[in-house]
Design goal:
By secondary structure, this protein is of the alpha/beta class. It is 40% helix and 19% strand.
């Protein structure tokens, strides 16, 4: 297939359309504005529906409604906008409604800055809304990965009847790269995907309709619903994805995801030429976290773990600590508030560790 040159946000939207997404509702916020803008142009071309809601709260509840009919549905926002959508996301998880959403992260807390950051890790992996539900969370490091993850996310969402999150920092969302787009699902395939949801979908009333509404709160059996959901979460070990780069002989292992991992990988190539034995563990699914990649490290060789992320205070580090279990020191290399991680900063942090 031929390659095209696309911006991250627009590529995510196109991947969703090709995956069969036929409903999108959203609200403008930098740096994800190109996603709803692209959907506004693209949805009419495929017989889909685009709505600019009056707010983030309205938009997520529109997705809740559209997803309830079995239609592949999506929303997107940035950081503080995702916070506003969190109640609706929790409702979708409670009602077991498949939907996909993207967070093109910006600085924080609060309104923060419009520049890229990775300060939503806790929100994405630990507390995306009330009630303790869980989601598959994918963190791309390239525009191509953002496409591939978005395309596949709709299948995961439909398989589990659960929200799926693409956690994509503002760098990936706004940069342009050559990419290969996935095949466009035919209208027959899209119709078949919706038909496969008919046993649970809210499709109106009539003598042949088994389901006319979807109960969001499981008021007559919430604990049973939670037990069922927990059993489903426990099956996600098979879905964990991770990149391990030059860890076989590494004495210093960098832990990083998204754009920080991409920067760190380029730093490793330079450090290796200097004779420094450095490797990288990059979570591709940040939830569930690839704990096993840290478990199998040889801690008689590994001197230290370097946590590299665009968050102050560090957030990824909590999962890294849980994985390492005090078997070696963990140091940090951090930026925050829209300051992008630099290769020089990573190189300097590794050299400092080597001096120790």
């Amino acid at each position: 297939m031929s390659r095209v040159f696309m911006k991250g946000c627009e590529a995510i939207a196109e991947a969703a359309v090709r995956a069969g997404c036929r409903f999108f509702a959203g609200y403008p916020i930098t740096p994800q504005n190109e996603i709803p803008e692209y959907f506004a142009r693209r949805m009419p071309e495929v017989g889909g529906v685009f709505v600019q809601g009056e707010s983030e709260v309205a938009s997520i509840n529109m997705v809740y409604g559209a997803g309830s009919t079995g239609t592949r549905s999506m929303t997107s926002s940035s950081s503080c906008g995702i916070s506003l959508k969190s109640e609706g996301i929790s409702y979708c998880a409670s009602a077991r409604i498949p939907m996909v959403f993207a967070n093109i992260s910006r600085g924080g807390p609060g309104v923060g800055s419009i520049h890229p950051a990775q300060q939503d890790y806790f929100q994405a992996t630990k507390a995306s809304g009330n009630g303790g539900f869980e989601m598959l969370v994918f963190a791309p490091a390239t525009v191509q990965e953002a496409i591939d993850m978005t395309y596949k996310a709709f299948d995961y969402a439909q398989r589990d009847r659960n929200p799926v999150l693409i956690l994509c920092d503002g760098v990936i969302g706004t940069m342009m790269e050559p990419v290969v787009l996935p095949e466009m699902k035919t209208e027959e395939e899209v119709a078949a995907l919706k038909e496969a949801n008919k046993e649970w979908a809210c499709i109106g009333h009539g003598k042949d309709v088994k389901r006319g509404w979807i109960e969001p709160g499981h008021w007559r059996g919430q604990e049973d619903a939670n037990i069922e959901a927990a059993a489903m979460y426990a099956t996600w070990d098979k879905d964990v994805q991770v990149e391990e780069y030059m860890v076989e002989d590494a004495e210093i292992v960098i832990a990083a995801y998204g754009i920080s991992a991409r920067v760190a990988k380029s730093a490793i190539d330079i450090l290796r030429k200097e004779g420094s034995k450095v490797g990288l563990i990059r979570p591709i699914t940040v939830h569930p976290f690839p704990y096993n990649s840290f478990e199998k490290l040889d801690y008689s060789r590994v001197k230290a773990i370097l946590d590299v992320e665009m968050s102050i205070p560090a957030q990824l580090i909590y999962d890294v600590k849980q994985a390492v279990k005090d078997r070696c020191p963990i140091e940090t290399c951090l930026r925050s508030g829209g300051q992008i991680m630099s290769r020089d900063a990573v190189i300097a942090a590794v050299r400092k560790l080597n001096e120790k």
